[in-house]
Predict the structure.
Amino acid sequence: MDWTSWLVGTVSRALAFGVPLLWGTLGEIYAERSGIVNLGVEGMMILGAYAGFAVAQTYGHPGWGLLAAAAVGMVAALWHAFLTVTLRANQYVSGLALTLFGLGLAGLLGRGWEGRPLRAPLGSLAVPVLGDLPVLGPMLFRDQTVLTYLGIVAALVLWIVLFRTRWGIVVRSVGESPATADAVGIHVGLVRYLCVAVGGLLAGVGGGYLSVAYRPSWTEGMTAGMGWIVIALTIFASWNPLRAIWGAFFFGALYHLSFRLQAYVSPELLKMMPYAFAILVLAVSGFGGARRRGGAPGALGLPYVRGER
Amino acid sequence: MKRLGPFVLERRLAPPRHVVFGVSLLAVVVALLLAALVFWAYGVSPVRAYSEIGRGTLGTVGGLSDIVRRAIPLILCGVGLTLSFRAQFWNIGAEGQLLAGAVAATGVALFVRVPDGFRLPLMFLAGFSAGAVWALIPALLRVKLRVNEVISTLMMNYIMAYIVEWLVHGPWKGPTMRGFAYTDMFPVAARLPYLTGTRIHWPTLVVGVAAAILVALLLARTRLGYEIRVVGQSPDAARYAGINFTTVLALALVVSGGLAALAGVGEVAGVHWRLRSPGHVSMGYGYTAIIVAWLARGSPLAAIFTALLFGLIFAAGDLMKTTLGLPFQITGVFNGLILFSLISSDLLMYWRVRLASKEKAWTGQAGS
């Protein structure tokens, strides 16, 4: 077999497959940095995927589809924020409810759209000069959509905001110690609402990418557990947007290989690979950082009530 | 304390039982009203939908037996989950544990040579063990390596689902089932008997109800049950009291996973008589059981009744598909809405509303 073409194909597809994971993970990092776990990523992604497809198909432009996906993801996340921040409901259960609801609703609404190719998919982008490079060109710069690059740029920007700006300090202090943040005059609830909303927006784009760009069509349950991989990746990335890039593309490669190796191993066993790796990766990072709690925000998962510990 | 017009809101620490019941009921009713909007958006009159459901499920023997049949796996998974949740272990893996039980039972039914009389008991035993092991792994991963159990139990669901896929497409694919991804049919000695006139596989139901009673006794009357509650309420207190966290959590999860797996045994031995693709064996019972346990507020006995409620919702889903032409996904929407409104109502239980007398209002203002 020609190794260069194999490698080029694998890396290029791994990038494409990692994109929804990257967007979702960036969003979940922001939500969790502010102290809110959102287990509804799968639900937000599938709603984003459905909305993206339906709108792009109706209006004939992928851009509208992606905008709709982002908006729908954000609305779903705001619902989670309302329950967990305002009503102080259990974050795990609220997230699970969001996933159940999202999968059900998207399946319900999407029935008429099943099996039709999208008439206006988001095409891949040939980067002018870099795309002509011998190996790197086809590997990185020819078969990717704009969302691959935007995702990496987003990761950089979100890292800078989180670790190099005042806003980042606000977000992190709300997640570490909301009582302290409150004492210095930060509106804890507002910050949490904003972070969860941003998280939903990014997860929505990740879902929209699946139905508008990666596989331009709508299939029920097309997120296939990616939302849960995202939550594992958030821990694996130590809540750091830059590390999310490597994590997402590593799992993108795993997903791709689970298709690629079907000639040698039965497809059902290969498909369990990303899920098994998610456990393995968490076990290994637990083995390394068991003493430090792996850098999780101090108040992760806890509702904040002024005057209560 | 807060003032709201002529009313005052008072915080209370432990809501009395009738308040918990009333608020939960209210939450379910609100969810059904929200679901009416979904019907309406789908062009079906909500009144007609609900009356069809009422007549088709509660109004006939066949309908009632369908509810019970659907409730059986929910009782077993739900009772198991109340135990996990009491220990504050977020076991989202009942789905995978159920499938593990189905796989083990199928193995015994088709490939083990035992006298006919022992076959079913051995299937239950093998199923329980498989589910126990499948639940024990995430428990140990959490205690030893601090792996978040929400993720690990979920990932184990996917892994087990693909194992089932692999078995029915590959090594266990029945030679007589051309083209279909099924195992062969179970021999008659491996099928559970029905309650006369219905399709309720009653041995599983008896096991489920017995499990609920035993787990309730375990929690209320035994040392292990006490330790599980302490571990759940305050891990630090448990450590000071010298309770072995690992052992307690492991035992709780063995029972929790084992019971979920018995549900899987019941599905393959009582409903399908073979192993088939995971979506057909379970239909998401393991996930729905989370709501069952949550609505039961951690009480195994209450889980029997909440399981029947969700049995009704599943049976209604079947009915809506056949009579109203609505897709089955509507049950997912139902479940999500009920869970949403349940957790939103939580806060309500901890506040008491009453009319403010002048005196009360005055102390209220001074107090806050």
Notes: The CA atoms of residues 232 and 278 of chain A lie 6 Å apart. Chain A touches chain B through 45 residues (CB under 8 Å). DSSP finds 13 helices and no strands in chain A. Residues 16-224 of chain A form one domain.
